[in-house]
Structure formats: structure tokens, C-alpha cells
Amino acid sequence: MRAKLAAEVASEPLVQIACEPLPQQPRLPEWLRKGQTRFESVQNLKTRLRGLRLHTVCESARCPNIHECFHRGTATFMILGNLCTRGCGFCSVPKGSAAKHEFSLDADEPEHVAEMARNMRLRYVVITSVNRDDLADGGSRHFADTVRAVRRALPEARVEVLTPDFCGDLRAVEAVLEAGPHVFNHNLETVSRLYRRVRPQADYRQSLAVLRHARTQQPGLLTKSGFMVGLGESAAEVHQLLADLRGADVNVATIGQYLQPSRRSFPVAEYVTPERFDEYRDYGLSLGFHTVFSGPFVRSSYMADSVWETAEASAG
Q1: Closest C-alpha among 50, 130, 141 to residue 96
Q2: Residues with Cβ < 8 Å from 27, sequence gap 6 or more?
Q3: 86-124 pLDDT, tens per residue?
Q4: Most confident of 58-72, 80-94, 271-285
Q5: Are 161 and 218 in contact (CB under 8 A)?
Q6: Pick from 316, 284, 309, 306: which is nearest to 74 by CA?
Q7: Spatial distance between the Cα atoms of 240 and 2, rounded to a whole number of angstroms
Q8: CA 151 vs CA 8, 29, 195, 289: distances in Å
Q9: Helix H segments across the chain?
Q10: Of 175, 177, 142, 173, nearest to 160 (Cα)?
Q11: pTM assigned to the model
């Protein structure tokens, strides 16, 4: 019986199935090839972080600068867990489901961040988070508790927060501001036209409103926002984004190249040349930003201490 079945299968003509070719990624240019790796430094810092149940956006977002930054003894703390309620097309941070009860909140996290920052002897501490739309306040009180814990542990250090949009809840923004960060950062990430595909659960105007409100509440506060290029935007759209940020009275802009973190993520449309990054920087400075940090490897919290010093010096 098996022999007969095998013979019948063998006699069937082969059917060729036409498959759609996968979209070709542009070839990685020379200016986007990172140099020295520091595996020992990365592993050592990861071990210390896991000992306190802490996460970093450097790891979860697969930042290309992780070897450099971890070797320098710096990292960006990511609080409110390691699962995000949103599914942005550019991001590799793990996603979770509130319906499946996958989210939790570590009450010890604020003190653990402060302990780690003190042990690392940080002069400049950057705190970001996943989106926690499952929480009534978006996690803003937990965010504020973390800022206060760090300021108690390191009273001489500067603290920068990189917050989500809190679904546009400006009271949540105020709760974070009341904790006393030195820099308030919220990323626009991309131009308005691409939001539906790249950030489907966010809103361009809502993010601008968050930044504008932070400035209104604390006029002396340094405000900051970052975005990626290489997603299919035009130069005119980048100019408009920069103008919109200045319209919200943002002081600092960061611009970096989007790199696809996984095969399921939004594809790279273009690798922007260093010369165009320089043009975007110069255009931003002409609009009145204190500083514009623009380059292929720039990320929102990359070299944040140096960016802050430059902005402060520019502000006089």
C-alpha cells in the first residue's frame, strides 16, 4: 500500500508556487558599521542589573551603542517592567497583553534604580519606561517615585526623564514634573504622515501637547525630543517636524538613523548620509534650538550628559 502511494506521489507533476520576494533592505553603508565590541563590560553590567531586577532600554531596544555605553559605565533605566502595552512598528521592546494578566509592577523598582545609579556613580541619570496603558495613571506615580528615589540617593546628579505620552493625560505629566527632573524628554519618533504605520497607538499632535504642557508648567525646564530618519520621510517633512517641536518650545532635538531591530519590524527605507544629518542639525539650530544632536548613531539618550551640557551652555 505504501509502495503504491509513493509511486502515485512520484508520478504527480511538480507544482511551482510563486512567492512574493521579501523586500530588500538597503546595503548597510560604511558609516553605520560599529567598531569595537566590549562583551565583558556588557555582561558585567547586565549581571548587576539583573541582580536588582532592573531593565534597560539599551538591551530591550537593541541599541547599537550598547557596547560603547556599557563600557563607559552608563545605561538608560527602563522602568514599569519589560513589557509594553503598545506595538509600535519600529520597536523591539517585548509586548504584553493586559487581558492575559502579563503585566506587573515592582514596588521596589524605584529604590533599586536609585541603588544601581549610586553604585554606578552616575552624574547623569536617564529614566525611561515602557507604555503602561493598563494603569489608570499610565505609571506616572511610579515614574515620579523613581525620580525622587534617585534624587535622594544622588543629590548632585542630573536626572532626565524620557516619558511616554500617558495617553494625553496632562495630570500624569504634571505628576512626573513635580518629582523634579532636570530634563523632560518625550520622543515624537517620526513625521506626522508616518504615524499610522509606525506608531498606530500614538498621536502626533498629542505628543506635541505633552511637550508644550511640560514647558508651560515649568518654563525653566529643559525640554527635549527625538526622532528617527530613514523610515520614508522627506527632507521637507523633517523640517516641518523640527518646526513643530520649536512651536512647542522644545529646547533640544536628537535625530538618528532608524535600524530595523527584527525581521518583523518596519523596514528601513533609506540610510541617511552623514551630510544630510548635518543639514538637519543646521536647520534645527537656525530655528532656535539650544542644541541639535544629529547623526547616524544618535539615540534619544545617547551621550545625554554631553547633550545637556551643550544645551545649558547655549542657553547661557
Answers
A1: 130
A2: none
A3: 988 888 888 888 777 788 899 999 999 999 999 999 999
A4: 271-285
A5: no
A6: 306
A7: 69
A8: 76, 42, 35, 27
A9: 2-11, 39-51, 57-60, 66-72, 109-119, 140-153, 170-177, 195-198, 204-217, 235-247, 274-287, 304-315
A10: 177
A11: 0.89
Cell of 9: 506521489
pLDDT tens readout for residues 223-271: 999 999 999 999 999 999 999 999 999 999 999 999 998 888 899 999 9
Q: Give the dihedral of Cα atoms 251, 268, 132, 42; nearest 10 deg.
A: -90
- Helix then strand then coil, % of the chain, to nearest 5: 40, 15, 45
DSSP 124: E
Name the maximum alpha-carbon separation found in the chain.
89
Question: What confidence tens digit (pLDDT) does each residue in 182-220 have?
Answer: 999 999 999 999 999 999 999 999 999 999 999 999 999
What is the torsion angle, in degrees rounded to the nearest 10, for the CA atoms of residue 165, residue 166, residue 168 and residue 171? -120
Q: What's the CA angle centered on 62, arms 124 and 224, to 5 degrees?
A: 40
Which amino acid is located at 142 in the chain? H
Mean pLDDT of the chain: 91
> Is the Cβ–Cβ distance between 248 and 208 less than 8 Å?
yes
Report long-range pairs for 112-116 (Cβ below 8 Å, ≥24 apart).
Answer: 112/52, 112/53, 112/54, 113/54, 113/77, 113/79, 113/146, 113/149, 113/150, 114/146, 114/149, 114/150, 114/152, 114/153, 114/154, 115/52, 115/153, 116/48, 116/49, 116/52, 116/54, 116/77
Residue whose C-alpha cell is 508648567: 217
**199 in Cβ contact with 228 (< 8 Å):** no
99's CB contacts (< 8 A; 6+ apart) are: none
Rg (CA), the chain: 22
Task: For residues 110 and 267, give the distance between their C-alpha atoms in angstroms, rounded to a whole number.
Answer: 36
129 DSSP β-pair partners: 79
For residues 245 and 208, give the distance between their C-alpha atoms in angstroms, rounded to a whole number.
7
**145 vs 101, residue with greater confidence:** 145
